Protein 1
Amino acid sequence: MNIMLFHSVYGLRPAVLAAADRLREAGHQVHVPDLYDGQTVDTAEEGRDLKDKIGTEELLRRAIAASAPYSDRGLVYAGFSLGGSIAQNLAMGDEKARGLLLLHGTSDIAEGVSVDELPVQLHVADPDPFETHDWLSAWYLQMQRAGADVEIYRYPGAGHLYTDPELPDYDEASAEQTWRVALGFLESLHEE
C-alpha cells in the first residue's frame, strides 16, 4: 500500500516517524509530509495556536501538494487527530483513494460528497473530549450516507492521543491493539 500519513496538531514528532517506520516494516510505502515546516510544539494548546496561525486552508493546500505526486497510484490516507481530519478531507475528494485510516480524529463531511464503498477505519479513545459519542454517531451516519464502509474501534480509558508514547495520553495496551487492527485493515486493502 502507498500511504500518506499526516501528523497531529503537535507537528511531525518522533511518534509519527515511528508509526511510519512500523508501517514500512509491514511492507507499505509511507509518505510523511511536514505540514508545519519543521515546527513542533509541546502542548495541544500551542498546537492549536500554530494550526490557527497557518490556517486550515493553507494546511489543506500543503497536504494536497504533498499527496499529488502519489495520488495517481491510489493512496491510503491516514492521520493522527488533526492529521486524521486532513486525511479524511483528502480521501473523500480523491476518487482513486484506496482507504482511510483515522487515528484519534475525524472531520466534518461536506454536503453531497459521495465515495464508492471507501474502506474507513477509525480508532478513538472512549470517551474522547474531541470525538464525543454524539459527534461520532452523526459522523458515522454521514459517512455511511456518503458511501463509505466504516469501522470504529473505541478504547475505554485511553487518552485522546493514546498512541504517542511521549504524551500523557499514552496507553500502551490500547496503542498496540490499534496497530494490530490497523495493520490488518491495511493488509485487507492490499488484497483487494
Protein 2
Amino acid sequence: MAADHHVWVFPVWLGGLPAITKGFIDRIFLPPMAFRYDDKSNRIRGHLQNKTARIVTTLDQSGWTYKWYFGEPSTWQLKQATLQFCGIKKVKTNYMGSIRGSSAAQREKWLQHLVKMAQQDGHSLSVKV
C-alpha cells in the first residue's frame, strides 16, 4: 500500500459496492499489510496512517438522495469500515448522479469537476512532500 493517496471510482449497485470492488478489498486490505490485531486486546492497529483517499461514485439518483435518504451505505462501508479502519482518516466523497438520463453536457461538467478534484488532490499531496 505504497500510494499516499487512494482514489476509488465505482458505480453504486443496489445501494452497495459492486462485487468486484468488494472482492478486491477482501484480497488487498488484510493483516499484516493494512492493519494488525493488537496481541493484548481486541484492538486493531491500522497501518495506513498519513494517507488520504477520495471516493467517487456514480448513481441513478441524486447524490443528495443517496446520502440523506438512504444513508450512503456503499461509501460509508468503504470510508468507515475499510479505509478509516486501516488508518486512512482523511477521506473525501463525491457523488455523480443521476447518471441515467443525464445529458452529454452534464456528463462533461462532471468530468471537468473530476479534473479539478484530481488537481486539488495532487496539489495537496505535493505540498506535503
Protein 3
Amino acid sequence: MARLALLSSGELARTLDRLATQVLEAEPDAEALLLLGIPTRGVALAEVLASRLEQLSGQCVDRGALDPTFHRDDLDRVGTRLVQPTALPVALEGRHVLLVDDVIFTGRTVRAALEALQAWGRPKRVSLLVMVDRGHREVPIQPDFCGRVVPTSRQESIQLCLRGIDPEEGVFLIRPST
C-alpha cells in the first residue's frame, strides 16, 4: 500500500480551526450544540472539535457518540464491526445536533446515523461535519461542513490520524500497490 499525506499536522490543526469557526457562524450559541461522533474516528474527531469550539466560544459544548451499525442497509457488503455504545449526554429536543465523521464516502453511514438518531428524539436541527469528502455517493447526502474534498477511486481509502490515539497526526490517502 502506498500512503500519501494530504494534510500535515499543522494543516489539520488549521482545518479544524476553520471548521470550528464555520460551525459557530452557523450556530453562535455553542451551548445549543450537541456533537455526536460516528464511530470510530468520528468520535475522536468530535472530541477534538468540541475542545476547539469551547476555546473559541468560551462555552461548554456537549458531545457524545452515535453508533448507526444496526440501522445500516449494507451490512452484508461492508461487514460488521464491534458495536460501540451510543452515548447521549443530553436530550436531543431543542438541540442543534452536529453529526461528526472522519470521511464521507457512499453516504450510507450518515443515512443510517440519521435513522438511528430518530430513535432517540427529535432535535431542532441536524448538520453534518466531515473531515474528508471522497465522493462516490450512493444516496443524496452532502456535508454541511467539510475539511477537504479529495476525489478518490473506489480502491483508495482515507485515514485520519489524531494525537492521543495515533502515533502521528494528519490525513492520508491510502492507495493499493500496483
